[in-house]
């Protein structure tokens, strides 16, 4: 089992009617007002604890006296959303806005987002540029552009899947044991070491009433989004970002894996040109979960950029 270097405190914060679960490192240490808060946002079907390995790799000089938090997004981890069948992307921006009011009222923070979290922080930085000092996007590429002609089919697909959800046909598969969860994590990411997989398994899943282990994610997250992805709106938000931005990509091409040419890295790099101040870095020997694959080199990149 992986041994933590910096243990996180688990706390619950009232955010927009939810009891939001937040991991906080350095909670007991004296806060240094010269160091902005570092806010780490996870991706789809992940949890805030996923950043533990990168946090452990930060230098003492950088981390000491700095508020470092990683929430579980609504419907993931221990942030429960009872009696819902839909999740909407704007809610993540609103949740983040309220979380920053709680942890860093009136202050600009450093934001790091992975995958879905990377998309959230990019959009948020365009909406609330004054709240973001520096911005790091880890593999948050957005989506392929859509056309109005796709709208009817998308809404119909969403309605069909809603019925399936309420009929109990949309589920997240449980596992027999924490070891089985760890095995699934390694199957998805062969670079993940067994000690890290065992550690993550007990935070990514939890014991269920049937003696198995259930993934801590609401099955409604599996439904398609009925709303089209409007790339032109995203580009306008990008253009409003004032924070210096670091885009970190894995050496494996995630977009080719997911989109099979329908949306490419070159197209994403064209979108990045709308940012006033952006630089890119490619992290060697990594897949999409680069904060698991190479936490030490990633920590150096993030730390150097934020410093």
Nearest-integer average pLDDT: 97
Q: Helicity range of the residues?
A: 25-40%
Q: Judging from the principal axes of the Cα atoms, what is the shape?
A: globular
Instruction: List the total number of helices.
Output: 12
The SSE string, one letter per element, is: EEEHHEHEHEHHHEEHEHHEHH
DSSP strand tally: 10
- Which sequence of strands runs across the widest sheet? 1-2-4-3-5-6-9-10
Separation, N- and C-terminal Cα atoms: 32 Å
List segments where confidence is low: pLDDT < 50 over at least 5 consecutive residues: none
Radius of gyration: 19 Å
Oligomer: single chain
Sheet of most strands:
8 strands, mixed
- Beta-strand percentage? 15-25%
Which structural class best describes the helix and strand composition?
alpha/beta
Polypeptide structure, described:
The chain has 307 residues and is of the alpha/beta class. It is built from 12 helices and 10 strands. Helix 4 (116-127) links the parallel strand 5 and strand 6. The longest helix is centred in the middle third of the chain and has 16 residues, at 151-166.
Lay out the secondary structure:
Elements: E1 9-15, E2 18-25, E3 38-41, H1 52-57, H2 60-63, E4 68-71, H3 89-103, E5 109-114, H4 116-127, E6 132-138, H5 151-166, H6 178-188, H7 194-204, E7 205-207, E8 213-215, H8 231-239, E9 245-250, H9 254-259, H10 265-272, E10 278-283, H11 290-293, H12 295-306
Parallel strand pairs: 3-4, 3-5, 5-6, 6-9, 9-10
Antiparallel strand pairs: 1-2, 2-4, 7-8
Helix pairs in contact: 3-4, 4-8, 6-7
């Amino acid at each position: 089992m992986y041994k933590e270097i910096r243990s996180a405190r688990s706390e619950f914060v009232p955010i927009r009617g939810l009891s939001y679960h937040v991991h906080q490192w350095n909670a007991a240490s004296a806060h240094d007002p010269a160091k902005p808060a570092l806010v780490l946002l996870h991706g789809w079907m992940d949890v805030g604890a996923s950043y533990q390995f990168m946090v452990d790799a930060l230098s003492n000089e950088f981390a000491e006296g700095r508020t470092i938090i990683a929430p579980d997004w609504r419907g993931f981890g221990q942030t429960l959303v009872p009696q819902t069948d839909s999740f909407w992307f704007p809610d993540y921006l609103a949740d983040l806005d309220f979380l920053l009011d709680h942890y860093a009222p009136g202050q600009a923070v450093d934001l790091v987002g992975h995958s879905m979290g990377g998309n959230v922080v990019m959009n948020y930085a365009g909406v609330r540029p004054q709240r973001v000092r520096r911005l790091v996007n880890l593999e948050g590429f957005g989506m392929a552009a859509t056309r109005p002609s796709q709208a009817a089919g998308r809404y119909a697909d969403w309605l069909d899947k809603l019925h399936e959800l309420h009929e109990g046909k949309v589920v997240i598969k449980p596992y027999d044991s924490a070891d089985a969860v760890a095995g699934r994590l390694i199957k998805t990411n062969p670079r993940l070491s067994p000690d890290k997989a065992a550690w993550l398994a007990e935070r990514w899943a939890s014991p269920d009433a049937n003696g198995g282990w259930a993934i801590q994610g609401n099955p409604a997250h599996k439904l398609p989004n009925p709303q089209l992805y409007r790339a032109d709106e995203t580009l306008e938000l990008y253009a409003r970002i004032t924070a210096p931005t670091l885009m970190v990509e894995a050496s494996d091409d995630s977009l080719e894996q997911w989109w099979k040419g329908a949306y490419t890295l070159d197209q994403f790099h064209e979108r990045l040109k709308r940012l006033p101040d952006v630089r890119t870095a490619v992290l060697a020997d990594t897949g999409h979960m680069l904060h698991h694959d190479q936490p030490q080199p990633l920590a150096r990149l993030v730390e150097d950029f934020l410093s």
